[in-house]
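Quick one - inputs below.
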Amino acid sequence: MIFEFTDEHEELRRTVRQFLANESDENTVRELMADVRGYNPDTWKRIAEELGLAGLIIPDAHGGADFGLVELAIVMEEMGRVLLCSPFLSSAVLATSALVLAADESAQAEILPQLASGETTATLAFSEKQSPWDLSGLRMAAKADGDEYTLTGVKSYVLDGHSADEILVVARAGDELALFRVAPDAKGLTREAVAPLDPTRKLATLEFRDTRASRISSGDATKGIERAIARTLIALAAEQTGGAQTCLDQAVAYAKTRLQFGRPIGSYQAIKHQCADLLVEVEFAKSAAYNAAFTDESDGDALSTAAAMAKSFCSEAYTKAAKRNIQIHGGMGFTWEHPAHLYLKRAKASEMLLGSPASHRERVAAAVGIGSR
Amino acid sequence: MNESEVRERTRKLLEEIHPDTEGVDHVAFRTAQFNHGLAMVSYPEGLGGLDLEPKMQAVVNDELQKNCKVFYESLAINPIGIGMGMPTLLTYGNENLKKDLMRRIFTGEDIWCQLFSEPSAGSDVAGLAMRAERDGEDWVLNGQKVWTTLAHISKWGMLLARTNPDVPKHDGLSYFLLDMEAPGVEVRPLYQITGEAEFNEVFLNDVRIPADRMLGKEGQGWRVAITTLMNERSALGGGSSRKGGGPVALLMKILEESDAVRTASEQAILEDKVTDLYIRAELLRLTTLRAKASQRSGNPGPEGSVGKVAQSELYQQVWEACISAIGDDGLVYEPGYELRRPGEGDDLRSASDAAGRRLTAKYQLLRSQANTIEGGTSEIMRNILGERVLGLPGEPRVDKEIPWKDVPRG
Ligand SMILES: Cc1cc2nc3c(=O)[nH]c(=O)nc-3n(C[C@H](O)[C@H](O)[C@H](O)COP(=O)(O)OP(=O)(O)OC[C@H]3O[C@@H](n4cnc5c(N)ncnc54)[C@H](O)[C@@H]3O)c2cc1C
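Output:
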């Protein structure tokens, strides 16, 4: 039956939590926020080597741990709790999934082992400003040039796009969608970090001008890329759940100790009931994220509906929790000093990343038959 | 017994007796289900169960729903008896009471009601005033209960009364099983927002209850009541048992059937709202499953209030969205407000055609206003979640340490 985490799952959760408690405390997060790269390469190396997380969902033939969505959700939830600054989402989830689900065997064999070992990181550049999260609206078209291709155009909101060692690009090839590989120092490629709303996760704009690229997928890659995005949505929803839980924990802890009018503010119902509401939201968010994670991946439609449901719900739950946490902390919650704002920024940015809650509800509506007449 | 064995046993039951067969009514079928231990699989053998984990009940229900056109929802057969009476009886009843009463609750032969609330004690039910005084082998009860759902057709009532007014309120309560046919019990209808009388006021005038019908010990009635209340909340917060089922299914159907005039943006906003409600309903169902998977046995705890708060507020929104989907025709309320008992006149709760569905929604818009009050108000649920689950401090109390008789009431 669904929703049963095994002892191994719980062990994985404990291990990751323990590691992150040491390696991703608030000071570390604040240091990395201010850093252009946005993560600590030594820590990433240890995450790859000691915990095996860089290759968590990479098949063992390519040096990974060959785990599925459930393990991925557990790990992301823990990372979300502490706002880990790392290329996990960009490299170990999104780019890895695109490679596993859409790339040719030879490209997989070349790239995946290095990602798994933590030697390199990768990113998937797909969103374009006029249609950021919808593959059908992508315009960038590759020009054939002998065996190779060239790319021209701009990709926006690329996760860790300025720092990744491997750049994978989604572009049209005739009437197909294809996956391309571009050398990080290729001629005609400029990579510019943008100042992100959420400084704990870096974004870049990638501009291509007649930039050489090799095609690493055969046939139409739409389905594979869609599946990779669905996986990423689920991972992100799990991360949001972890973040929302931390906001609730912080709010409750403060409500127990802050005294006004001679008693703890948590004894006032106006505060207590807000915490109770957040508890309901967090429980629902867990149900949404776990449900998606436990969905059978071979059923593509079920997976994308569960992913859309999770992403729309967990996004709004996290933002609500982050805002309430600030409110419950009063003036303190509005300061730079207090971590509450870090969570609000992560919440709001991750809500927008990969599509708004309303856009995902539209997908759910279409899937379950709440149709326009 | 594992999942497939439970399925097998359920199929055997259906080979013996099938609810779709003509002449097999709910009593006949559910008697057999009880005797096979498939009524409440987590209960002991002989009492409707097989000593299994509670979540195995879902397997039985799934198998029944798959193979039968007729499926008896326990909460429709005997909501209070099955949802609250059975677990309370299981936890606190003596062996004789369990043997005599358990099966008849499950089959619906004995309807049960809950006599807790009084005019001066609702949310603060532990402050109630009904007196029970010992006289030989009996207790003698006097006082008034209110909002007693189903009292007019009940055989048994779970009753909380004050056996000692001189101690703080929680310590002076005892819990009884009242035979609703006993002399001195008077039931009068109370009409509600829809014009129906689901509930009643119940007056007790020198009613005698034999001492062996007390559940738990004298003065420990509050503990027993908590068991009843926790089960009530989890029963009122479980969501639909089927994906995309329950009130949201009706909402989707009404939206599909609606020919109301709406602008494109009105339509888009409505569809987004309906989808949001669909998702929440699905998450309510999944959250219940998740809670059940972690509940090994025994009675639900305070976290059951998560579902209670969520479901009551969700369903109110669902019925409101139905009215938005119906459009201006929502101005008409076809059944009218004639004062009556439920079941007299049109059946407003189940719908088989488009007009019936709209009627159900209109009726439920009104009926669902009780969802956030009955079984503990949403405010009380949030207090419980805040204090019992999250561990937030309680409010200063003026009534906790002093004898009940000295507490102000009104
Ligand atoms: C349809 C229906 C069926 C019912 N069936 C039964 C039944 O079968 N058996 C039975 O025993 N009872 C039954 N009840 C009664 C129900 O349990 C009570 O109505 C409920 O507990 C509220 O009590 P009250 O009506 O006295 O309201 P009050 O307790 O007077 O509450 C009034 C308002 O004050 C708020 N309030 C009270 N205390 C607090 C507090 N500490 N903090 C914040 N807010 C507070 C409440 O939330 C509410 O908004 C039923 C009620 C309804 C509506």
